[in-house]
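Researcher: We're reviewing a set of sequences before deciding which ones to prioritize for further study. For each one, I'd like a predicted 3D structure that I can look through quickly. This is Class I SAM-dependent methyltransferase. If possible, include the structure in token form so it fits the rest of the review sheet.
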Amino acid sequence: MKDKLNSEIIKNDNDVFVMLDNLLEEKDNEWWNKFYSDREKPIPFFKNIPDENLVSYMDKDLLKKGKALDIGCGYGRNSFYLYKNGFQTTGIDFSKTSIEWGKQIQKEDSSNVNFLCQSIFDFKDTQESYDFIYDSGCLHHIKPHRRPEYLKIISKYLKSDGYFAMVCFNLKGGSNISDYDVYKDCSMHGGMGFSEHKLKEVLEPYFQIIEFREMIETTNENIFGKSFLWTVLMKKNKIFCISTQNQLFS
Ligand SMILES: C[S@@+](CC[C@H](N)C(=O)[O-])C[C@H]1O[C@@H](n2cnc3c(N)ncnc32)[C@H](O)[C@@H]1O
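Model: Here's the predicted structure for Class I SAM-dependent methyltransferase, in token form for your review sheet.
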């Protein structure tokens, strides 16, 4: 009891964040390690094919080839696609079993993705050095109080003329709960679903939205397409970057 009294002290903003982290059930690297341990599970994204929207950006020649970062890359199905399309690609995921899976695939098909097994919150690289940052299915697992920090990390590493694209649950895919509900229920309910309004509210302080649409459902066996997901293509919001430069890059 005394230990608790002496350790659970809120002295600063970070202590509040840590308290909120502890309030919620853990869907952490251990949880994901178990999730990826059976590769035969009928999970739609366990098939090594790229997202429909990512293929469409490539087909339309929207992205400048250069450095790409795939956040919450899993075993790297989109990282491999980026690599094969000429990007110097880093895939980051905090699940050891997903990264091991990715490394095994790349041994077999001689790709050269730079896989990192760490949390995006611990990621360090040169600021504004990425031409393209991608998130397929990570944001809807980020706890709401950590979301601004997450989006600032992306802004910090994206070049001023680079693109950020993401895929996340809409209300057909994720749970229909508000940010407040997460803390009332102490649960993310398996991944938050976003309304169009909410997702734009969350992203627009940091990014300028170029394309916002539902993922196109497809039966093409070489492309992953599910209509329970939003797809968003963005550029960095320059006004935000200038006005918060010190805060963002500190
Ligand atoms: C729904 S899966 C998507 C995997 C992959 N992007 C795909 O589409 O195949 C979400 C991934 O995000 C990863 N993840 C969640 N939070 C993370 C964090 N803080 N840092 C790094 N990876 C994280 C999980 O380990 C998991 O692999």
